[in-house]
C-alpha cells in the first residue's frame, strides 16, 4: 500500500477504496428467525430471555441513538447464557462481525464518513444477508 496523506479518509486503513467499491454481499450474518438460541435440556424449551422476533431485533437496532445506521447481529449462544441477553445485538452496518474482518470494517467506516463516497446498505433479515454498495461521489 502506498503512503496516503493524513486528510485522506483511508489514511488509517489497511485497504484502499478499490477493495470496497461496488456491491458486496455478506451472507448469513444478520439475526434471523433461524438464529440459534439456547434450549433448556430438561424441558426442551427456549429460554425466556432468548425468545425474540426479527421485528424486535430490527426495532432494537433502529432505536440505538447514533448517527451511524445499526443492524441486528446474532448474539452467540454463550453470550445469551452468560448474560441472560436477547439472541441479538446491534452494531454499525459495517461492523467486523458482519463484514468478516477488521480491515473491511475500517475501510467501510472511512468511506461512510467521507464526502467522497456514497455508501448504502440493505439488511435482509429473512435470508440473513447484508449487502453494502460503495460508489465514488460525483465531482461537483
Q: What's the SSE blueprint?
A:
Layout: E1 22-26, H1 54-63, E2 70-74, H2 77-83, E3 88-92, H3 96-99, H4 102-113, E4 117-124, E5 129-136
Antiparallel strand pairs: 1-5, 2-3, 4-5
Overview of the molecule:
It contains 4 helices and 5 strands; from the N terminus they run βαβαβααββ. With 140 residues, the chain is an alpha+beta fold. It is elongated, with a radius of gyration of 18 Å. The strands form 2 sheets. A 3-stranded antiparallel sheet has the order 1-5-4, covered by helices on one side. It has a two-stranded antiparallel sheet with strand order 2-3. It starts with 21 loop residues before the first strand and ends with a strand. The longest helix is centred in the C-terminal third of the chain and has 12 residues, at 102-113. The model has no long low-confidence stretch (mean pLDDT 90).
Termini separation comes to 28 Å
Tally of contiguous helical segments = 4
Which structural class fits the helix and strand makeup?
Answer: alpha+beta
- Low-confidence segments, given as residue ranges, are none
* Element-by-element helix/strand order: EHEHEHHEE
Amino acid at each position: 500500500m502506498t503512503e496516503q496523506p493524513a486528510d485522506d479518509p483511508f489514511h488509517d486503513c489497511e485497504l484502499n477504496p478499490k477493495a470496497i467499491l461496488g456491491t458486496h454481499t455478506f451472507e448469513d450474518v444478520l439475526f434471523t428467525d433461524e438464529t440459534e438460541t439456547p434450549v433448556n435440556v430438561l424441558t426442551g424449551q427456549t429460554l425466556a430471555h432468548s425468545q425474540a422476533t426479527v421485528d424486535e431485533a430490527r426495532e432494537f437496532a433502529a432505536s440505538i441513538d447514533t448517527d451511524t445506521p445499526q443492524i441486528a447481529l446474532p448474539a452467540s449462544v454463550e453470550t445469551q447464557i452468560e448474560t441472560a441477553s436477547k439472541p441479538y445485538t446491534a452494531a454499525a452496518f459495517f461492523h467486523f462481525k458482519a463484514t468478516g474482518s477488521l480491515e473491511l470494517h475500517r475501510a467501510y467506516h472511512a468511506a461512510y464518513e467521507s464526502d467522497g463516497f456514497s455508501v448504502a446498505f440493505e439488511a435482509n433479515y429473512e435470508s440473513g444477508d447484508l449487502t453494502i454498495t460503495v460508489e465514488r461521489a460525483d465531482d461537483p
